[in-house]
Amino acid sequence: MRFLIVFGSIVVPIAMLMIQRKWIKWRIAFNVASVLSTLILGNISALAIYEILRDNTVFMTSIHAIFLNPMFLLTGAYLGVYLVYRLLLMTYEEVYV
User: Fold this and answer.
1) Where are the transmembrane segments (predicted)?
2) How many helical (H) and strand (E) elements, i.e. helices and strands, does the chain have?
3) Which residues, in sequence order, are CB contacts of 71 under 8 Å at separation 6+?
4) 39-71 pLDDT per residue, tens
5) How confident is the model over 5-49, as pLDDT tens digits?
6) SS (H, E, C) 21-59
7) pTM (2 d.p.)
8) So what's the pLDDT on residue 55?
């Protein structure tokens, strides 16, 4: 599993870079997905923190329960991959454009 996570964080951004170079509309799709992921991730985080403060259960284990939310993990993973993709894109454009 560790290999898959590390391998995916390297291969997926490179694949995204190659896809958007071939079909420019994918760049828009990647950007829209990042905006939606940011909104979802932020709202899940804010709601979890609000619930903890409302219930007065400010313990480290309470806040870590957010990591059990699959949507939180999915959107966070996409944003991590998207960040690497954007860094690759900026580097590529600085060197070749």
Assistant:
1) 28-50, 62-85
2) 4, 0
3) 40, 44
4) 999 999 999 989 888 888 876 677 788 889 999
5) 899 999 999 999 999 989 989 999 999 999 999 999 999 999 998
6) HHCCHHHHHHHHHHHHHHHHHHHHHHHHHHHHHHHCCCC
7) 0.87
8) 85
Check the CA dihedral 10-15-16-21 and report its sign. Answer: positive
Nearby residues of 69 by Cβ (< 8 Å), 6 or more positions away: 44, 48
Could you tell me how many residues make up the chain?
97
Cα 93 from chain centroid?
A: 22
DSSP conformational letter for 63: H
Q: For residue 36, what are the contacts with CB-CB under 8 A and spacing of at least 6? A: 75
How far apart are the C-alpha atoms of 24 and 90, rounded to whole Å? 15
